[in-house]
Design a protein that fits this description.
This protein is α+β, with helices and mostly antiparallel strands. It has five helices and eight strands. The longest helix is centred in the N-terminal third of the chain and has 14 residues.
């Protein structure tokens, strides 16, 4: 039986997903340089570009996010010129650091404006994506050096997820809409 007293989801959002080729490249760097915590600690999220984020989302929020997810297909693929790689703190785990690639908000201006027009304050504009997670200080420069060859980030899909950015919490993706329309 479904829960009778709840009509909210703890967290809901739409996130851009990198191309499979870039995911594989960043996975290789993580395997070589990262000290990622055990997956049971909750840090096994996919790399992402945050577009929306809603705490305590309602069922109508899910409907609105699905409509937005469908309409976002016109922006795919999202190609962002990489500016630089840098160290980014993990706010939920003091002392942990990731390597992110900065791209600058001017490149996502149209996309963010479209999202903001639809969801208001639930829109998120972030000028970077964390690409190699949990990199110890002694490996950070090596990762940054290898990332200097990355000229652009390519996001090939948008995911609507609840509670955590992973496959198990994915509700739907933009590309699934597209494949059903053929």
């Amino acid at each position: 039986m479904l829960e009778l007293s709840s009509n909210t989801i703890k967290a809901l959002g739409i996130f851009g997903r990198l191309s499979k080729e870039q995911e594989e490249f960043f996975d290789t760097l993580e395997t070589k340089y990262s000290n990622k915590p055990d997956a049971s600690k909750g840090y096994d999220v996919f790399r992402h570009l945050t577009l929306t984020f809603i705490h305590d989302a309602s069922i109508p929020d899910v409907q609105d996010e699905l409509d937005l997810l469908y309409d976002l297909k016109r922006f795919l693929p999202v190609k962002l010129r990489a500016k630089r790689a840098f160290v980014k703190d993990e706010v939920t785990m003091p002392g942990a650091e990731h390597i992110a690639i900065e791209f600058g908000l001017e490149q996502t201006k149209e996309l963010v404006a479209f999202v903001s027009n639809r969801v208001g304050d639930n829109a998120v504009a972030t000028p970077y994506t964390k690409v190699v997670w949990f990199v110890p200080k002694d490996h950070q420069q090596a990762v940054i050096d290898q990332l200097s060859n990355v000229k652009e980030l390519v996001f090939t899909d948008f995911y609507l997820v609840s509670n955590k950015q992973d496959e198990a919490n994915t509700i739907y993706t933009t590309n699934r809409f597209s494949s059903r329309e053929k």
